[in-house]
């Protein structure tokens, strides 16, 4: 979730320079796995341990033994694995919102787009004394500010569509992050109470519900994507259609319409 939030922030606010190649994506994913392993491997080498928890149906790190070693690991895990990522996610989405608000204000200020005879050269005229320097060529006048750059009306519209799609993707990710917090937040609170608080408040049955609730995040994430992401729905629908179609249809390049 943290890496997706960073990617959404960079793709929206640095759209002109933020382009990831397949090799960069692969290295990013590999780095995420390395970070994940640094969080879960320590109990295998003596720093804390894994034990049966709750109603004896799952294993987790030992958050009931109130010893310095266990306390240090729980602190390490909750800070680096829960709170720090949440802070990064929060900062990314706050900056996305601020950027989108400023962008909307600029777009609302723009009066019209005047395109030169050249298909790639255009002027943006603002109905105020404000001006934005896109390509470094600016013509300020008393009543208006004219901005000249290698942007046509079509390219501006395409950029607006792309940015709208990025904002929708960021909204979907934000909802998933909120659901993730609602799922893992109670479990984190229970673990912190168990390692630092009154353990009489933590019974096997009171712990069972947070455990079951947090692990449902792996189930409802695809559902959220399917409900909110049109492209995701289209890909899934196409996959099932091709799966039930004949081999001739698959090789002929036939297509199907996604559900509404």
From TrEMBL:
Its main location: membrane. The chain crosses the membrane at residues 25-45, 73-94, 169-196, 208-228. Residues 1-225 form the G-protein coupled receptors family 1 profile domain. Keywords: Chromophore, G-protein coupled receptor, Membrane, Photoreceptor protein, Receptor, Retinal protein, Sensory transduction, Transducer, Transmembrane, Transmembrane helix, Vision. It comes from the Eukaryota. GO terms for cellular component: membrane. Pfam families: 7tm_1. One of its GO terms (molecular function) is photoreceptor activity. It is a multi-pass membrane protein. InterPro entries: GPCR_opsins, GPCR_Rhodpsn, GPCR_Rhodpsn_7TM, Retinal_BS. This is G-protein coupled receptors family 1 profile domain-containing protein.
